[in-house]
Amino acid sequence: MFVALLGASLLGQVSAQPVDPKLQPEARAVLSYLHSIYGKKVIYGQSTNTGLGIGDWPNAEAMFKASGKYPAMLCIDVYGWNPPHWGESYRGVVASYVKDAGRWYRDKHGLVTMQYHWGNPLIPDGSAWVGQPKNAPKVDVGKLVTPGTEENKAAMEDLRKTADAMQPLADGHVPILFRPLHEIDGGWFWWTDRQKPENTAALFRLIYDYFVKKRGFHNMIWVYSAGVQKDPVEFRKRFYTGSSYVDIAGVDVYSNQAGQDYHADAYQNYYDVMKQVAPGKMLALCECDAVPSPAAMAKGPTWLYALPWWAPGKDNPAEWVKQVANDPLMVTLDRLPKKF
From start to end of 86-215, where are the E strands? Predict the structure, then answer.
């Protein structure tokens, strides 16, 4: 029946098999649902605006206040922000985010995606951003992915602690669309090796192998996320991990960077690029300032999901949120299946 849903449409060219052959039933149900709507509907997501506060989901509440609808998908970080890494405050933030992810799935019956603003693991107060703090050493990603190096040991220890914190989600069978190394080709995060992009691709594979093969996390749907770049497609392809590590591919598009107006556009140009970078994968707007025009998306491209980073406000006007959330193309929380 599921294969029949794919038909001879756009979906016929998209792989329906999870990259993790041991994916838990709940996560399989989520992935199957996403395949069933791809090209037909768009999941309306909302970031928690991580880093600006913990606990609950105020941005989702702000969306409900503006539109009468909750997002179908909530985006949560798995990074603790407050230095030092794995100090008391840092651990508390991560634990709060993990708890919120579980509650959104169990209590709200919503979808969860998590990204990882992975702080430079070589120093206790390392940031995801290049040059922050000022004393941060430049990360040699080639050494970091080489077993036995000090860089690799530091990275693996940080991944171990992150996996320990996320263990309740795996144990609780909470499906997570996991998006490590987001904006992978941008250059503003330490993990982007623009001299040898293959090192960054190897880092994504290292993360997958650790979580899935070593730790046995089988609740994760794996998301590859590119940035708004003008680099040639062939260069961008060098960051790609390969199809056997990616369930969903996407790009983060902010209209002020893209030079396009979300009121009237569907970002066809970025969709076309990602089709070449990640052929055979469902494509999503993993981040955006506001959901692009449903009228434009209905004509194509119809992204799998669109996830505004900002709550209703200056960059994501409340009146636009109300209009888009109530458009028949969009899947909000009330339009999801009651249980996965």
Answer: 111-115, 176-179
Q: Are strands 220-226 and 176-179 parallel, antiparallel or unpaired?
A: parallel
Distance CA 240, CA 252 (A): 15
pLDDT in tens, 297-321: 999 999 999 999 999 999 999 999 9
The letter for the amino acid at 226 is A
Confidence of residue 174 (pLDDT cuts 50, 70, 90): very high
CA distance 249 to 281: 6
Residues 239-252: b if buried by 16+ CB within 10 A, e if exposed = bbbeeebbbbbbbb
Instruction: Determine the CATH number of domain 2-335.
Output: 3.20.20.80
pTM score:
0.94
What is the rounded CA–CA span in Å between residue 4 and residue 24?
23
* CA atoms of 75 and 87, how far apart (whole Å): 24
Digit-coded pLDDT (tens) for 23-34: 999 999 999 999
For the chain, what are the domain ranges? 2-335
Rounded Cα distance, 236 and 226, in Å: 8
Q: Which residues of 88-119 are buried (b: 16+ CB within 10 A; e: fewer)?
A: eebbebbebbbbbbbbbbeebebbbbbbbbbb
